[in-house]
């Protein structure tokens, strides 16, 4: 799209809006690196992952007797779309731990992590209550230690898969680049 806009004299794209949070990180495979390379800002939505990262769900919600009935609650929505899983609750547990260490809410920690990501220029938030956006305003005050950021990055890490894993292997680097490590250009 950038090339078409450039060739036609149109305004270029300026941002990429995708779901990105500690649970949904698949954009890190290709979309976020593409945006950074093309000079696009990344504007992630759903930093609290549908509320899963706020600490309002527990493992009991995974097996609640009425969970299958689907009565239209946020929990039912998260169960139905795969957002409420054991893996995701493990991530939420680490978010709660870090929030406790910092004296902030889990929602603030999730949003602050999002804002710390390379290329992120803003984060879109949604709110069901007036208290939620007020709470979110505390996110810029979150001051992570490097160890806390590393814990958060690690707990929600995804495998980049093909072709990233193959291209990162020593054997492939030796075959294609003579063993040199190719880095992205600096702007």
UniProtKB/TrEMBL annotation:
Keywords: Oxidoreductase. InterPro entries: AKR_Detox_Biosynth, NAD(P)_OxRdtase_dom_sf, NADP_OxRdtase_dom. Signal peptide: none annotated. Residues 6-155 form the NADP-dependent oxidoreductase domain. Gene3D superfamilies: NADP-dependent oxidoreductase domain (3.20.20.100). One of its GO terms (cellular component) is cytosol. It comes from the Bacteria. The keyword Oxidoreductase applies. GO terms for molecular function: oxidoreductase activity. Pfam families: Aldo_ket_red. This is Aryl-alcohol dehydrogenase-like predicted oxidoreductase.
């Amino acid at each position: 799209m950038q090339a078409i806009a450039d060739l036609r004299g149109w305004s270029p794209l300026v941002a990429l809006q995708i779901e990105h949070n500690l649970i949904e990180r698949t954009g890190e495979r290709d979309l976020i690196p593409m945006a950074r390379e093309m000079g696009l800002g990344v504007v992630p939505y759903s930093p609290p992952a549908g509320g899963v990262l706020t600490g309002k769900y527990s493992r009991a919600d995974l097996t609640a007797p009425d969970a299958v009935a689907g009565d239209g609650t946020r929990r039912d929505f998260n169960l139905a779309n795969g957002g409420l899983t054991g893996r995701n609750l493990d991530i939420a547990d680490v978010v709660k731990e870090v929030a406790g260490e910092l004296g902030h809410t889990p929602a603030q920690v999730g949003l602050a992590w999002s804002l710390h990501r390379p290329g992120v220029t803003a984060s879109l938030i949604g709110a069901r209550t007036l208290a939620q956006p007020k709470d979110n305003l505390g996110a810029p005050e979150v001051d992570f230690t490097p160890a806390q950021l590393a814990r958060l990055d690690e707990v929600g890490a995804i495998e980049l898969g093909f072709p990233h894993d193959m291209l990162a292997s020593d054997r492939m680097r030796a075959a294609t680049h003579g063993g040199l490590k190719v880095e992205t250009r600096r702007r």
